[in-house]
Amino acid sequence: MSYVRPKFRHPQLPKNKLGYTMAYYEGALSTLCAGCGHDSIGAAIVQACYELNIEPHRMAKLSGIGCSSKTPAYFLSNSHGFNSVHGRMPSVATGANLANRDLIYFGVSGDGDSASIGMGQFVHVIRRNLNMVYLVMNNGCYGLTKGQDSATADIGSKSKAGSVNLFEPIDLASLAIELGATFVAQSFSGDKAQLIPLVKAAMKHPGFAFINVISPCVTFNNNSGSTKSYDYVRQHVEATATIDFVPEMQEISVSYAKGDVKQVTQHDGSILHLHKVAQDWDPLDRHSAVNAVLNAKAKSEILTGLLYIDPDSRDLHHMLQTSYTPLNELPQSELCPGIEVLKSINAELR
Fold it and tell me: What is the distance between the alpha carbons of residues 270 and 106, in angstroms, rounded to a whole number?
């Protein structure tokens, strides 16, 4: 079996405004199991970056350990990448982001990487409102170590081996909202029509953007009795809204037959159009978002879509008032301003 992607592409393939075809945003061939939902998520990321006309070298991909953390190798091979140790991706992302705010930071994690060994780091990167996309490929099991239940497995869920999970799950979306995340969404790997605009909106959000994607494990967690199998998710999904993401300065005509439409303007002028279908839910109200998730959970439903957004978010750079210039581009005159400046700084501290 070959793991080399063919280089030939039809010369008439469509190109984006940068002149790139979709192939320029692809990566290596996936070595995940055939039918893995993680590959569908990777394809959605490729599509989102292509449609947003993002220059791949402006993207920094970061991950930890697990099936999900392998996926950055399978998209945007022309971008920067760093595969960290288990659960420590947020620390690497924070350091890189503070050193260079000009890049787009895209973190990929899994339910084991974030909800278990990396929980402490997950909590604090939310608190700091780091300007990044944090996407969790959530399958409720440890796919690299033969399918044991992860911390996000629902109570009563049955594994492929027949064991029943006895413990309450960690709901990452609810936790992110409660901790102050300024963009929280949830989706399903089998719904690219919903996932692509969510990824695009998250990449334009000025702060921490969290997307929890239910991504069934075809090998260890796609059996009857699992609450994260393809069949269960399809039967229990309830969407918050139909979402259109409109890039800055692009005209669009939106029309819906039923329901209300909310318009949320992003910091750069981009617009989110939300076609509201879930009752008693407001994506701009944190309490409403929490209640919507809890109500869905009580009915054994999986609420997908944009759950909460704060369009007035201030990221870590704004809070710390850091340099707009990447650290490796600061001139000697700014790094070493002279003895008189040092004296004035010391005087202020006395």
Answer: 19
Can you tell me whether residue 75 is helix, strand or coil? Answer: strand
Contact status, residue 127 vs residue 179, Cβ threshold 8 Å = yes
**Rounded distance between C-alpha atoms, residue 291 and residue 297, angstroms:** 10
- In this structure, are residues 244 and 199 in contact, taking their beta carbons and an 8 Å threshold? no
Q: What is the pLDDT of residues 223-273, one digit of tens each?
A: 777 777 777 777 776 676 666 666 665 443 444 333 455 566 665 666 665
* Cα 93 to the center of its chain, rounded Å: 13
Distance CA 94, CA 104 (A): 12
- Which of 168, 206, 173 lies closest to 188 in space, CA to CA? 173
Residues composing the chain: 350
Q: Which of 127-136, 158-167, 270-279, 319-328 has the lowest mean pLDDT?
A: 270-279
Specify whether the CB–CB gap between 16 and 164 falls below 8 A: no
Helices (H) and strands (E) in the chain, counts: 12, 13
Report which of 222, 162, 158, 164 is spatially closest to residue 189, judged by C-alpha positions: 222
**First-to-last CA distance in the chain?**
69
pLDDT averaged over every residue in the chain = 86
Helix segments in the chain, DSSP class H: 37-51, 67-70, 89-99, 111-115, 119-127, 172-178, 192-204, 230-236, 286-298, 316-320, 332-335, 339-348
Question: For residue 112, which of 142, 137, 135, 155 has the smallest C-alpha distance?
Answer: 142
- Full set of structural domains in the chain with CATH: 22-328 (3.40.50.970)
Amino acid letter, 80:
H
User: CA-CA distance, 163 to 307, in Å (whole number)?
Assistant: 32
